[in-house]
Structure formats: structure tokens, C-alpha cells
Design goal:
Elements: H1 3-16, H2 29-38, H3 44-57, H4 61-65, H5 69-76, H6 82-100, H7 108-112, H8 119-128, H9 139-147, H10 156-166, H11 172-185
């Protein structure tokens, strides 16, 4: 383990603590699965507004599996890309009912075999529901890991592999939670607040 990486993690722990936080509201594994699918190209805050009514209307996996496509599209429209998301949600929940007895599986291959579920979504489920150490690579993690020199890759799967080698397992889930907060408040995509940044000296892009 590189001393530099441990220093970065130690600073993140001091700033944000080590508590596991999930920003998507849910009370069951399948709700988190659907919320994560909806969160693609959409803010968690908007997803939470949509799922508040959505999970009341469709209160079981079976109801989603039997949903009318056009109706579901309208229900999730504010999250964007709703044609594709609605189609995937119906196909995914049908597979949950038919292949997994209505339960969300924990195996990465089983999860990624579901419609609309890539490694990022699968790792959110594995980390938050099953507490399996998982590295979730979203836009914040990809951008900031490059800035911190923890990866040189752009491809999320390669970034995930790099971080699995670079980070101790007890920080795999935590790193994502901390970096989302950091990425929203300080290390933003367009105009990062470099002067306020407590990781300045580790940043490959910081100019005095």
C-alpha cells in the first residue's frame, strides 16, 4: 500500500468520517436496485423525489414486472432516458421474479446478467445491501481518482480494477461515499474549489 494513498484516505476519514451513507432512499434491496438504475445521468435528489410516489404505486417486484411500459415511462420521466430505463426495469424485475424468486441476488455475475445492471449498479447493491467490499465507480470517483493520481484510466471497469489494487478493502465502499461528498462540495467537475481543497498537495491538476 502506498504511503501517499493512505495519507489521502486518512484525510478523507478525518473530514467525512467512516459512516456508511446511501444517498438513494430505499427500504428494500429491490427498491435500491431500481433507484440506482434511475440514477444514471440523474441526480440522487431527483431520483428520491420520483421514487417517493413510485414505490407507493409499485410496492412489490411483481408490480414492476407487470407494469405497463408507457405508464411506467411517464412515472419515471423526470429522471431522463425514461424509455430505456422503463424497458430495463420491467425486464430486470421480470428476471428477478422468474429466476431469483423475487429476491435481489448478491453474486456479481447474477446481478450483471439483469437488464440495465452494469458493474457500477451491481457494486452499489453488493456494498450497501450485502456489505460485500465493492468499488463503485461513478462520475465523481472517476474524475477525482484521476486528479489524485490513483488511476490513469477513463474506462470505469479499468478504474475499478486500479482502485481495487490501490485501496485497502475496508475503504472500498467508504471511498465512494466520501468522494461523492467531496466531488459535490469541493472537487466539482467544472469549477473545482482548489483554494478550499484539503487534498491540494496530492492533486495532479492543481496549479498554484
Amino acid at each position: 500500500m502506498k504511503k501517499r494513498t493512505l495519507e489521502i484516505l486518512s484525510i478523507l476519514d478525518d473530514q467525512y468520517g467512516r459512516e456508511y451513507v446511501c444517498y438513494l432512499n430505499h427500504s428494500t434491496p429491490w427498491q435500491l436496485l431500481i433507484a440506482t438504475m434511475l440514477s444514471a445521468q440523474c441526480t440522487d435528489a431527483r431520483v428520491n423525489i420520483v421514487t417517493k410516489d413510485l414505490f407507493r404505486k409499485y410496492d412489490s417486484v411483481e408490480k414492476f414486472a407487470n407494469a405497463d411500459l408507457k405508464e411506467l415511462e411517464q412515472d419515471i420521466k423526470p429522471t431522463g432516458f425514461y424509455h430505456n430505463k422503463a424497458k430495463n426495469i420491467i425486464a430486470c424485475t421480470k428476471a428477478l421474479v422468474e429466476r431469483f424468486g423475487g429476491e435481489v441476488p448478491s453474486d456479481i455475475d447474477d446481478l450483471t446478467s439483469l437488464a440495465g445492471v452494469g458493474r457500477k449498479t451491481a457494486n452499489v447493491i453488493r456494498g450497501n445491501i450485502f456489505h460485500e467490499p465493492s468499488v463503485v465507480v461513478d462520475t465523481h470517483v472517476k474524475r477525482i481518482s484521476k486528479r489524485l493520481g490513483l488511476t490513469k484510466n477513463d474506462d470505469p471497469d479499468k478504474v475499478e480494477q486500479d482502485l481495487m489494487k490501490e485501496l485497502p478493502k475496508d475503504h472500498w465502499i467508504l471511498y465512494n461515499i466520501q468522494i461523492i461528498t467531496f466531488g459535490r462540495s469541493i472537487c466539482t467537475a467544472r469549477s473545482p474549489k482548489c483554494r478550499e481543497c484539503f487534498l491540494q498537495k496530492y492533486c495532479k491538476e492543481y496549479k498554484m
